[in-house]
Design goal:
34% of the residues lie in helices and 18% in strands. The longest helix has 20 residues. It is of the alpha/beta class and 426 residues long. It is globular, with a radius of gyration of 23 Å. The protein folds into two domains: 157 residues, NAD(P)-binding Rossmann-like Domain (Rossmann fold); 194 residues, Dihydrodipicolinate Reductase, domain 2 (2-Layer Sandwich), CATH 3.30.360.10. Strand 11 and strand 12 form a beta hairpin. The strands form two sheets. Strands 13-12-11-7-10-9-8-14-15 form a nine-stranded mixed beta sheet. A six-stranded parallel beta sheet has the order 3-2-1-4-5-6, with helices on both faces.
Length: 426
């Protein structure tokens, strides 16, 4: 974090015209955190999701947000207004170049909310720059990419937290504890539903358009590691539907819910050993599409069944004496009603983020691994990627969670990787 006694040009200039009255918060009195002990943060990728992340960091009294970075000029301007409006000044620095953020010695950590293809690359660059990182999911597009990021954070000793905020949600802790207490009996099946497929009425991906001025939107940098393709507004707007720039809802929503199953099992390094499934792909607009509809059935070594599908977002845990369901917006129901009798479930809405952000900040100070650390995040993401590989192959696959490879399946093992467009790499 910002070292005590470190002087910046800005703090020097302020000192020269300092008023005679010094607020208690500046001195760290009355319980306030002095500036020298605040964690200095920058946001990279300032769309809607990461703007909400940064808002949560702004609420933390021991944090100072000093810079924002985005490839869209409009988003940069909005993010600066957000930060400056919170502090009542105009100090927030804006840039479209992440290098200008990572080379600053006064920044302790970055909050990464770029497109999925940038998550592991940006996390790696942050680690190499000595920055801790809070990164949105999916943090990797492939199994191999995720493993590389785990190794990089170990090498540089940085603190890294995946933005799977449900892992710190009190409602999810209640759900896990209720199941572990035996209220639904012996758990035998978990169904995770990630929502219906996206908007498939697209037909302009294949129609090239003139790319904007990079100062307004840097399209080439936006592509990152993805294969080069001609610019079109739909290619940018609907990037989640394109396998070249994303990995679909299985990898997007999957880690949130899968991490809860791993948590419940008490072994974050575990995972299913068999996968089979069906999917519907729609070839539209000349793009390599993600599944529109899918259903995956996986099995853990001890027999627990895991089903993934496109139903309304939520988690359903089924035991031999009942079931319990948690919707993504926090609603909880169970059968028989006695499963929840005498209990008072806390709010489990997915928007609850403060405990997860707080865990990350506390780990920056203590240097202990966060609750959604690289290794545990890698394993929950691996389940999602194995499911995607099964769907793309159109046949069952077998997986060894300990050795992290597909059993006797060279074709599947080759899909653990994607070629990355130079110069970007993990």
């Amino acid at each position: 974090m910002a070292l005590e006694g470190r002087a910046t040009r800005r703090s020097f200039a302020k000192a020269a015209v300092a008023p005679l009255f010094v607020p208690a918060s500046t001195l760290g009195l009355a319980g306030a955190t002095p500036p020298s002990d605040r964690i200095v943060i920058a946001g990279i990728g300032m769309g809607g999701r990461n703007s909400r992340n940064v808002q949560e960091f702004l609420k933390q009294e021991d944090v100072r947000v000093v810079a924002v970075c985005d490839l869209f000029a409009e988003r940069r301007d909005r993010a600066k207004q957000l930060v400056d409006g919170h502090y009542g000044n105009s100090d927030c620095v804006v840039t479209r170049l992440h290098e200008e953020v990572l080379e600053r010695d006064d920044i302790d950590a970055v909050v990464i909310g770029t497109g999925d293809r940038w998550h592991s690359v940006m996390s790696s660059l942050a680690a190499q720059a000595g920055k801790d990182a809070y990164c949105e999911k999916p943090f990797c597009l492939t199994i191999a990419e995720g493993r590389q990021l785990v190794d990089v954070t170990k090498q540089y000793g940085t603190v890294w937290q995946c933005g799977t905020q449900r892992r710190s949600n009190p409602g999810y802790a209640f759900l896990v504890n209720t199941i572990l207490s035996g209220r639904i009996g012996q758990l035998h099946t978990v169904r995770l539903s990630f929502g219906a497929g996206g908007n498939w009425k697209v037909n302009s991906f294949a129609r090239p358009e003139e790319a904007p001025d990079p100062a307004l939107f840097d399209y080439d940098r936006w592509l990152g590691q993805s294969p080069w393709a001609p610019y079109s507004k739909d290619r940018v707007r609907l990037w989640r539907l394109n396998w070249d720039t994303g990995a679909g809802a299985v990898a997007d929503m999957g880690p949130h819910f899968i991490e809860t199953v791993q948590w419940l099992r008490g072994d974050s390094l575990d995972g299913p050993v068999e996968y089979e499934g069906l999917a519907e792909y729609r070839e539209e607009g000349g793009i390599n599409t993600i599944p529109y509809w899918y259903e995956v059935r996986a099995r853990y070594k001890d027999g627990l069944r895991l089903h993934l599908d496109t139903g309304p977002k939520g988690l359903r845990f089924m035991g031999d004496e009942g079931w319990i369901f948690l919707s993504d917006t926090g609603g909880m129901e169970a059968r028989p009603q006695s499963v929840l009798a005498g209990l008072d479930p806390p709010d489990a809405n997915y928007i609850i983020q403060a405990p997860h952000v707080r865990d990350f900040l506390d780990c920056i100070r203590s240097r202990r691994p966060p609750i959604s650390n690289p290794e545990s995040a890698q394993r929950s993401h691996t389940v999602a990627h194995c499911a995607n590989i099964c769907l793309r192959l159109g046949r069952p696959v077998r997986w060894d969670p300990r050795e992290e490879h597909f059993v006797g399946d060279d074709e599947a093992n080759n899909m653990m990787y994607r070629a990355m467009r130079p110069p970007w790499r993990v």
